[in-house]
Amino acid sequence: MNYTPILETERLIIRPMTLEDVEGHFSMDSQPEVHTYLRGEPLQKIEESKTMIEGIQSQYKNFGVGRVAVIEKSSGEFIGWTGFKFIEEKEAINNQFGFLDFGYRYKKEAWGKGYATEAAKACMDYYWKEMTHFKLNALTHIENKASRNVLEKIGFEVTDTFNFDLWDIDCFWYELKSEVKF
After folding, report:
1. Do the beta carbons of residue 14 and residue 8 sit within 8 Å?
2. Tens of pLDDT along 139-156?
3. Fewer CB atoms inside 10 A, N or C side of the chain?
4. Can you give the pLDDT at residue 126?
5. Quick one: which of 67, 41, 35 has its CA closest to 52?
6. Superfamily of domain 7-176
7. Which residue, 107, 106, 114, is CA-closest to 11?
8. Per-residue pLDDT for 88 more than 90?
9. Is residue 70 left, alpha or beta, with left meaning phi > 0 and alpha meaning psi from -120 to 50?
10. Structure pTM?
11. What is the mean pLDDT of the segment spanning 172-180?
12. Mean of pLDDT over the chain
C-alpha cells in the first residue's frame, strides 16, 4: 500500500519528494540554523541532498511511506519536509522500532508562519483516515519549544526523555494520545 499521497492545504502542497527537489532540500538543510536542535552538521554538498532524497524514495518503495516535500503554493518553492518515516530495527529510537516517526524540517525563512502546524494537521488528518494500523511516535530536542508546540497541538504527549545517541542530544519522546479535530 502507498501512504505518500498528495495533500493540499490553504497555503501548501504536500507531496512525495523527487530529485527535482534537490536544490530546495539543499538550500534548507545547508542552513546552520536548521541544525540548531539536530546534530549541528548542516549539509556541505548538494550531493548529500541527492543521497537523502534517494533514501526517502527507497522508503516509499520498501514501506509505502516516507517524508514528503512541503511546497509553498504562492511561490512554488520547496520550504521543507514533513511526514512519516518507518523506523526499522537497525534504526531503533529510544529502544523502539517497527513504528512511524512523525517529523518535519523547514528552511529558516519559513519559520514562524504556521507552515509546520498547517502541514502537520494535514498529515495527521491523513493518518487518522488511512494509517491508524501503524503506531505513531515523535521526538524532539528538549529545548526546541517551537517543535514541541507543533507536536502537542496535533495530539502528541511527552511520555519519556532519552538521549538520542545517533546525534547525542537529549530528547522528549512523544506518543500519540488522541485524535485532535481541526
Report:
1. yes
2. 999 999 999 999 999 999
3. N
4. 97
5. 67
6. Gcn5-related N-acetyltransferase (GNAT) (3.40.630.30)
7. 114
8. yes
9. beta
10. 0.96
11. 91
12. 96
| Closest-CA residue to 138 (of 62, 61, 19, 153) | 153
The answer to whether 132 and 3 are in contact (CB under 8 A) is: no
What residues have CB less than 8 Å from 170, skipping those under 6 apart? 141, 142, 161, 162, 163, 164
Pairwise CA distance, residues 21 & 11, whole Å: 18
Per the structure block, which three cell numbers stand in for 70?
512541503
Q: Assess whether pLDDT exceeds 90 at residue 62.
A: yes
Each domain of the chain, given as residue ranges in start order, spans 7-176
Give residue 132's pLDDT: 94
Kindly report the CA angle at 87 between 149 and 17, in degrees rounded to 5? 75
